[in-house]
């Protein structure tokens, strides 16, 4: 048996077996394993991710990570996320429907909890960030494979229909997840892709497959958002920062080419759905009209997190939009949702959160976080992504995790 001798704070000699020391070292990695579990199961079985977060919380308490709560004030994103939660909490004070207010707060809890857990810690390990992103990508890939299997078995089962009938996931949220994986994966693996070997071919093929899956889900905002962020990222990265115009032109051409083929090889039922929406118009126009009708009546403070849905249903009845009444549809636009819930004051807080978080990451040269904010800001133009935990978990978890790169940059500058 081998032993390790050391002096503790009381200057007393202690003897601990080296094997025990190694076991303690492995114990320190357990919370990071929980992060991998959260990321992998978030697209498919979010309940498993919730259990992993709970276990992470237990380790966070037992390891005394709360001693580093002061670090939260260094991150604009964390402060803004907590402020948005506080906004929904305080708006309930002038709501009558306390039941809906409670369920609304439950959906927003990740905005409060995850930034605290992930940013109040002693060390920020960049390897954990990369591993967690890979785990999330693999989780998304597993769902894509299942959707392909169902479509091959029965062509009538498009991706969106399969998700609606046979999974607990939501196609709109999943399309946003895929946009995130696609763009982050491309940026992180760009140097490997241009090496033109077998491994780079597999990486490129995998990213193209994700691209196709976004089109197969027929989420128009995810498609437009992905194309927009792709082109803007290349413009900023290759033209403004690197001054490589030819490379930028080639990359933009490839982006357009990949999108062209993704659209043309999309499932027939998916293309029919897009054409149908183009001809008949979008019910969101009716939803947004109802939202603006009610916002005009209380523009400063809104109606509170408890009464927003009741006011929307009242507007739907006025507009004879029975489907919206039956399905209790929200604003289908997070900016309008915030405006209706907490008024202009709430919208200003929300916009400040996004813009200041983007600015902070840009100044820290954390371009992955900038891409993340851009994807989220575009997707919430047509969906109220923060009204379900599938959205709040995604935003709070990856927003906090990508901030670890800010710390990495800070340490490099200090050294």
Q: What features would you highlight for this structure?
A:
415 residues; mainly alpha; two-stranded antiparallel sheet; globular; disordered N terminus
Layout: helices, strands, pairs:
Blueprint (H helix, E strand, L loop, with lengths): L2 E5 L5 E5 H10 L2 H12 L4 H17 L13 H16 L6 H22 L6 H28 L5 H8 L4 H18 L1 H4 L4 H19 L3 H22 L3 H20 L3 H13 L3 H12 L8 H15 L3 H6 L6 H30 L3 H13 L9 H14 L1 H11 L1
Antiparallel strand pairs: 1-2
Helix pairs in contact: 2-3, 2-6, 4-5, 4-17, 5-15, 5-19, 6-8, 8-10, 8-11, 8-18, 10-12, 11-12, 11-18, 14-15, 14-17, 15-17, 17-18, 18-19
Tell me what you see in this structure:
This protein is mainly alpha-helical. The chain has one domain. It contains 20 helices and 2 strands. It has helices at 18-27, 30-41, 46-62, 76-91, 98-119, 126-153, 159-166, 171-188, 190-193, 198-216, 220-241, 245-264, 268-280, 284-295, 304-318, 322-327, 334-363, 367-379, 389-402, 404-414; strands at residues 3-7, 13-17. The protein has a two-stranded antiparallel ribbon. Helix 2 (30-41) packs antiparallel against helix 3 (46-62) and helix 8 packs antiparallel against helix 10 (198-216). The longest helix is centred in the C-terminal third of the chain and has 30 residues, at 334-363. The model is unreliable at 1-15 (pLDDT under 50).
Largest sheet: 2 strands, antiparallel
Helix content: over 70%
- Low-confidence parts, pLDDT < 50 over ≥5 residues? 1-15
- Mean pLDDT metric: 84
| N/C terminus separation | 40 Å
Tally of contiguous helical segments: 20
Give a summary of the structure in a few sentences:
By secondary structure, the chain is an all-alpha fold.
């Amino acid at each position: 048996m081998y032993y390790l001798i050391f002096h503790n704070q009381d200057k007393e000699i202690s003897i601990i077996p080296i094997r025990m020391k190694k076991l303690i070292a492995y114990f320190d990695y357990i919370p990071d394993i929980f992060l991998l579990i959260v990321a992998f199961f978030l697209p498919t079985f979010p309940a498993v991710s919730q259990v992993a977060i709970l276990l992470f919380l237990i380790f966070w308490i037992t390891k005394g990570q709360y001693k580093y709560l002061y670090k939260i004030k260094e991150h604009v994103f964390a402060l803004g996320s907590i402020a948005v939660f506080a906004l929904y909490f305080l708006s309930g004070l002038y709501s009558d429907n306390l039941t809906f207010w409670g369920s609304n707060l439950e959906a927003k809890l990740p905005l409060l909890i995850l930034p605290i857990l992930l940013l109040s810690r002693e060390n920020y390990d960049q390897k954990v960030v990369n591993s967690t992103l890979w785990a999330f990508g693999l989780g998304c890939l597993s769902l894509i494979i299942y959707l392909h299997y169902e479509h091959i078995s029965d062509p009538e089962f498009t991706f969106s229909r399969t998700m609606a009938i046979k999974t607990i996931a939501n196609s709109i949220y999943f399309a946003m997840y895929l946009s995130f994986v696609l763009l982050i994966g491309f940026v992180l693996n760009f140097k490997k892709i241009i090496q033109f070997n077998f491994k780079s071919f597999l990486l490129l093929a995998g990213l193209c497959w994700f691209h196709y899956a976004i089109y197969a889900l027929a989420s128009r905002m995810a498609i437009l958002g992905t194309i927009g962020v792709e082109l803007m990222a290349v413009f900023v990265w290759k033209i403004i920062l690197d001054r490589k115009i030819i490379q930028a032109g080639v990359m933009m051409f490839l982006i357009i080419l990949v999108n062209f083929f993704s659209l043309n090889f999309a499932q027939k039922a998916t293309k029919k759905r897009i054409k149908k929406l183009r001809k008949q118009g979008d019910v969101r126009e009716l939803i947004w009209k109802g939202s603006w009708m009610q916002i005009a009546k209380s523009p400063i403070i809104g109606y509170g997190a408890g009464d927003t849905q009741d006011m929307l249903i009242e507007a739907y009845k006025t507009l004879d939009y029975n489907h919206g009444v039956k399905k209790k549809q929200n604003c289908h636009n997070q900016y309008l949702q915030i405006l209706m819930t907490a008024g202009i004051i709430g919208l200003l807080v929300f916009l400040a959160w996004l813009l200041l978080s983007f600015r902070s990451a840009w100044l820290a040269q954390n371009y992955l976080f900038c891409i993340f904010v851009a994807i989220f800001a575009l997707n919430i133009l047509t969906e109220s992504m923060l009204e379900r935990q599938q959205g709040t978990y995604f935003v709070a978890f990856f927003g906090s995790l990508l901030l670890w790169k800010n710390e990495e940059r800070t340490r490099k500058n200090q050294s």
